[in-house]
Amino acid sequence: MEMILWLKRFFWAGLGLPRCNRLTPLVSQSMDRDLTFKERILLKSHYIICDRCDRYHDQLEIMRKAIQLQNEDTALSGSASLSPEARSRIKAAVLSEAGH
Ligand SMILES: [Zn+2]
Q1: Ligand 1 mean position to 94 CA, how many Å?
Q2: Residue 16 Rama label (left phi>0; alpha psi -120 to 50; beta)
Q3: ∠ CA(18), CA(27), CA(65), 5° rounding?
Q4: Rounded distance between C-alpha atoms, residue 74 and residue 82, angstroms
Q5: In 3-state terms, the chain is what percent helix, strand and coil (to 5)?
Q6: Fewer Cβ atoms within 10 Å of its own Cβ: the N or the C terminal residue of the chain?
Q7: CA 67 to centroid of ligand 1, rounded, Å
């Protein structure tokens, strides 16, 4: 498995295509604007050879959807404040995570 991944990366680099550190800003930008056709092709083909960038994209997508849901929820309720129950649950989770 590692060998196949290594070969894919070697092939990618051999084509002179940009590496992860030059593509991650583009992954972030894909959340904020419509990418050009060339940029979309570049990212999609990179995701095939790079699990890390693919996962990064998936995580950004999840965060974006969570924020959208939060915004829709806030718009529906007309308030950005949390319920007392939600505050308690979050506080308990944070304290539990911190080992208290
Ligand atoms: Zn990558």
Answers
A1: 32
A2: left
A3: 165
A4: 10
A5: 80, 0, 20
A6: N
A7: 25
- Rounded to the nearest whole angstrom, what is the distance from the C-alpha of residue 47 to the centroid of ligand 1? 7
Structure tokens at 100: 């208290």
Name the 3-class secondary structure at 96. Answer: helix
Query: Which helix (H) or strand (E) segment is 18 a member of?
Result: none
**Long-range CB contacts for residues 9-12, cutoff 8 Å, separation at least 24:** 9/49, 9/50, 11/49, 12/46, 12/49, 12/50
Distance CA 48, CA 53 (A): 9
Give the global pTM: 0.61
Q: What is the pLDDT of residues 35-80, one digit of tens each?
A: 999 999 999 989 988 889 999 999 999 999 999 888 887 777 766 6
